[in-house]
Amino acid sequence: MRSHQTRRTFAVGLTATVAACATTQAQENHVTNIVLVHGAWADGAGWEGVYRSLTAKGHKVSIVQNPLTSLNDDVAATNRVLARQDGPVLLVGHSYGGAVITQAGNAASVAGLVFVTAFAPDAGESVSSLLEAGGGPPPPLQPTADGFLFFDPAVFPQAFAQDLPAERGAFMAASQIPTAGACFGTPITQAAWRTKPSAYVLATEDRVIPPAAQRQMATRANATITEVRGSHAVYVSQPDAVADAIDAAARRLPR
Fold first, then answer.
1. pLDDT per residue as tens digits for the range 102-154
2. Which of 29, 71, 126, 142 could share a disulfide with 187, CB 3.0–4.6 Å?
3. What is the rounded distance in angstroms from the CA atom of residue 10 to the CA atom of residue 13?
4. Burial of 5 by CB count in 10 Å (0-12 exposed, 13-18 middle, 19+ buried)?
5. Domain boundaries 31-251, corresponding CATH code
């Protein structure tokens, strides 16, 4: 009886070991390092739901805290996090963060890009020039004396995050980080999406970047498009759907 139990225990242990090795091998066959970059008037905490979902899928996730003082400063902040990775990286940006990853994504360690309802400027373009070309009404911005911009907090909840509970939208408006106007006016020098595989999460209910403009930028970047019903804050309101799109992009990239 004891011998039979020993053989059974060994078999169970061997099966578990083989399964663990297979899981590790599967993870090693695609990119597992993911770096998330937030946009204007926000900080990295908004990625928490996406972070939890991606880590549950086996990814190593890092989050950039942009100073939002200039495009160059935000690219530098992203590069610091990229330098800490132990292998190829999938770089993800939301909104203005799309401009940041378009520039920072030229780093050799970046294997691909994911734009989450984000700007994807080409070389010589800026967020401001894309907004002007879109022809829609300008965002309701409130400038400060030293060149920073607040998003009108009275408008923020319904413009930026209408699919979140009202109190959550109000908190996001009250806790927003003012963004230097120079962030929007600085043109890209080299667009990483020209040479790196890209994906795009298109928020169909976005009231900040019109869905048609999102589709135009995604198509120009030859990006794989995933539509998610959500506001401009889709990464907060629909974190699992956004994480699924990021995970799928990572699995298309060989390690």
1. 999 999 999 999 999 999 999 999 999 999 887 567 789 999 999 999 999 99
2. 126
3. 5
4. exposed
5. 3.40.50.1820
